[in-house]
Design a protein that fits this description.
heterodimer; A: mainly alpha; MetI-like fold; about 80% helix; globular; B: mainly alpha; 12 helices
Chain lengths: ~325, ~270
């Protein structure tokens, strides 16, 4: 019951945050000078003033911004994001055909981050100041400091151009349609290797660093000394006692890294020419396609909040104190 | 070992600052001088970092680019610290509803895919150096706000704050004279780390073509030029990238060192 109450409160909070985000996005985009109709109308001397007004009326751009926002929210609730100014297709269709690629990359990257970052962090905490720890520290600092797009370019020139092992861009080969089912999967996987590892690269650094300091912090606490004192093997002390506690702060960081992952898709997808949501966002921003921009911003926010909710669920699954305390607190 | 790394980072940071200040004296060529007879020359004694597709000297462009990167880094961080300190101290000092509302606003900003927001803003507002600085600053203050709030929450219970209040000090006076100066340590740490972050964001934006506009050289747009010649001219991509990485790395190392200094409890 408490658990349910906690999650209901949490969800209510998230809904508020979500509408806050859309509100900010909407005003930021619409208060900027220039209108999308400029491209079709004012740049074109043949279009009269009346025609332009008519165009603005069709898109609802003649109304005050707050009314436009309310109209947007009313349509949003029914999952109607409006139509793209560019090709007049429904925005939701445009976004939903792009989402799977972006999700595939982000989720695989996330798994890679968990699979490499956490063991790496634990290892360098346990073997502190060993050569292994030194090397991973160097790796971590480089991962924090090297621009994602630069690493991508270098990897591309090494693995795709010089060595020719991996395809340069896109998500499938030209002969994709003629491949067997297994061949199709292998083909997409080959195209995904670089984008996924580069997306994961920076986050692996972050997570392993947090994991390291978290484990080091925990290893100094009293209950670890007790566990050691009663004669447990060091392996049991680490895996049964320390790890679970050390994971807590890392879960929070994971939840917070979702926006970075989604934002980073713009860069990765534009370098590797991947037709995902990030690429669509870049193109829509360039064309001032307001409905698509708004649509992607809100879907991005929705995915982020979902990530936070998952992180929260994981958090309270690992730490029973959270479920009770937080519900009482509010 | 550790001290040597910190020293190296400090020297590199100072070198880049000297590059930026004395760019006209250090650059060996005019950064925008086109030389059609020297297109894509590989690194040599005449052009130590080679030349680009228009025959411009990469080293000189990198030197001039450090101006843009540093100015954007410092100003953006200045803006983000100003916003963060203001929101954090107000939230921490007044507590209750003010705190609750401001912290929900922070949560909201943390949920934004920041790069999406920056992209949208910069694109609708014409890319210019000023817009980029303001936008990076306005989307990166949340960490500072949280830190300052946490500090102020504990500081405001101290006796000397109570004393200041009894003597009739106004809220603004107490916040500015008694609370903020004592919370400055973590802020300096996060500002140092922030410079690196801001330089990274600027280079990504310029790389995407919506940051600093050519012909003004910035590390990001030199790299962006290098993208199309990746297979033929590696020097266009490698050198500016190394400069970005080393600069950001140095600020990160200095930031970590300062953290050890201000928060010795966390020393590892």
């Amino acid at each position: 019951m408490r658990m349910l109450k906690y999650f209901l409160q949490k969800t209510a909070g998230l809904v508020t945050v979500f509408f806050g985000i859309t509100l900010i996005s909407f005003f930021v985009i619409h208060l900027a000078p220039g209108k999308p109709t400029d491209i079709a109308a004012s740049m074109n001397p043949k279009v009269s003033y009346e025609a332009r007004e008519k165009l603005e009326k069709i898109y609802g751009l003649d109304k005050p911004v707050h009314q436009q926002y309310i109209a947007w929210v009313c349509r949003f609730i029914t999952f109607d994001f409006g139509r793209s100014y560019l090709d007049n297709r429904p925005v939701s269709a445009k976004i939903f055909e792009r989402i799977p690629v972006t999700l595939l990359i982000s989720v695989s990257a996330m798994l890679l981050v968990l699979g490499i970052g956490i063991p790496l962090g634990v290892l360098s905490a346990v073997k502190r100041n060993s050569p292994m720890d030194r090397i991973s520290t160097i790796f971590v600092f480089t991962g924090f400091s090297a621009p994602e797009f630069w690493v991508a370019l270098l990897a591309m020139s090494a693995f795709c151009i010089t060595l020719g092992w991996l395809p340069v861009s896109g998500i499938k080969s030209l002969d994709f349609e003629y491949l067997s089912a297994g061949g199709k999967i292998a083909d997409v996987a080959r195209h995904m290797i670089l984008p996924v590892s580069i997306t994961a690269f920076g986050s692996i650094a972050g997570i392993s660093r947090y994991m390291r300091s978290s484990v080091i912090g925990i290893m100094g606490s009293d209950f670890i000394r007790t566990a050691r004192a009663k004669g447990l093997k060091e392996g049991d002390v680490i895996f049964k006692h320390a790890l679970k506690n050390a994971l807590l702060p890392v879960i929070t960081i994971l939840g917070l890294s979702v926006p970075g992952l989604i934002g980073g898709s713009v860069i990765i997808e534009s370098i590797f020419a991947i037709p995902g949501m990030g690429r669509l966002f870049y193109d829509s921003v360039m064309a001032r396609d307001y409905p698509t921009i708004m649509g992607i911003l809100s879907i991005g926010a929705l995915l982020t909040l979902l990530g936070n909710l998952l992180a929260d669920a994981a958090y309270s699954a690992v730490d029973p104190r959270i479920r009770t305390e937080k519900a009482d607190e509010r | 070992m550790r001290d040597k790394v910190v020293l190296a980072a400090a020297i590199f940071v100072i070198t880049i600052i000297i590059f930026a200040v004395l760019a006209p004296f250090i650059a060996t060529y005019d950064p925008s001088k086109i030389d059609a007879s020297n297109i894509l020359a590989s690194p040599s004694s005449a052009h130590i970092f080679g030349t680009d597709t228009l025959g411009r000297d990469i080293f000189s462009r990198v030197v001039y680019g450090s101006r843009i990167s540093l100015v954007i880094g410092f100003v953006a961080v200045g803006i983000s610290v100003a916003i963060g300190v203001f929101i954090g101290s107000v939230a921490g000092y007044y507590g209750r509803k003010v705190d609750y509302c401001l912290m929900r606003f922070v949560d909201m900003m943390l949920c934004f895919p920041t790069l999406f927001l920056i992209l949208a803003v910069v694109a609708v507002l014409e890319p210019s150096i000023w817009n980029i600085m303001v936008v990076i600053g306005a989307t990166s203050w949340m960490g500072v706000a949280r830190l300052v709030r946490a500090e102020v929450l504990t500081l405001k219970e101290r006796d000397y704050v109570a004393a200041a209040r009894v003597m009739g000090g106004s809220d603004a006076w107490i916040i500015l004279k008694h609370l903020v100066p004592n919370a400055i340590g973590p802020v300096i740490v996060s500002a140092t780390l922030g410079v690196g972050g801001a330089i990274l964001v600027e280079s990504s934006l310029s790389f995407l073509g919506i940051g600093v506009q050519p012909p003004t050289p910035s590390w990001g747009n030199i790299l962006s030029d290098g993208r199309s010649t990746l297979g033929v001219a590696w020097w266009l991509t490698v050198y500016p990238g190394i400069f970005i990485t080393l600069t950001v790395l140095s600020y990160n190392i200095l930031g970590e060192r300062l953290r050890d200094h201000f928060e010795p409890r966390l020393k590892r």
